Fold this sequence. Notes:
The complex is a heterodimer. Chain A is built from no helices and eleven strands. By secondary structure, chain A is mostly beta strands. In chain A, strands 2, 4, 5, 6, 9, 10 and 11 form a seven-stranded mixed β-sheet that branches. In chain A, strands 1-3-8-7 form a four-stranded antiparallel β-sheet, with no helix packed on it. Chain B is mainly β. Chain B has strands spanning 4-7, 10-14, 19-25, 29-37, 43-49, 52-56, 59-64, 69-74, 83-91, 98-100, 104-109. The chains are: A mainly beta, B mainly beta. At the A-B interface, β5, β9 and β10 of A face β4, β5, β9 and β10 of B.
Amino acid sequence: NAGVTQTPKFQVLKTGQSMTLQCAQDMNHNSMYWYRQDPGMGLRLIYYSASEGTTDKGEVPNGYNVSRLNKREFSLRLESAAPSQTSVYFCASPQAYGAHTGELFFGEGSRLTVL
Amino acid sequence: KNEVEQSPQNLTAQEEEFITINCSYSVGISALHWLQQHPGGGIVSLFMLSSGKKKHGRLIATINIQEKHSSLHITASHPRDSAVYICAVRSLGGYQKVTFGTGTKLQVIP
């Protein structure tokens, strides 16, 4: 039972390059989130998807795009990477009980450096 | 003021010490989460609370909804407990936004 899997774990980019972070969950959850974690700050929400086919902006969406490809997969794309996007990125998916959300499941994180 | 405040930010303890990490929040919530993150590692859910107290092994989490406060206790601490502990609150309504504290970095010395 893998839970939430995200790739790659590490990536170094040059300013202006593009890349996609992949996330997949095998728990049949409806919701999926992308967060970034920076030193001295709590995790901040970039984008979320409440269900297959829907995506919405979080707190810090600028410079990112997302795709909810199907119920399992939620990808995060950096079209033109900037040094300010150097961060650790986490994909997460909450358990749900009807209208209520439960425990949070996280991927192992993707450490991105933009030079 | 952040919606979720944790204290202390850093904590060093001797092995076997009783440890308390505090979390205060300022919004109405449907649940509070305690998470653990080891250095360079992923984030693992320890507890989800909406009232009262939960215990798992040497870990105990409590919440006081009226006072908007939660504590995470570790009994008989061990070096393997060294990690960052993160408090997060799930707000009421909408997509139930989750707001995270900045974490408490715990080091347990043998």
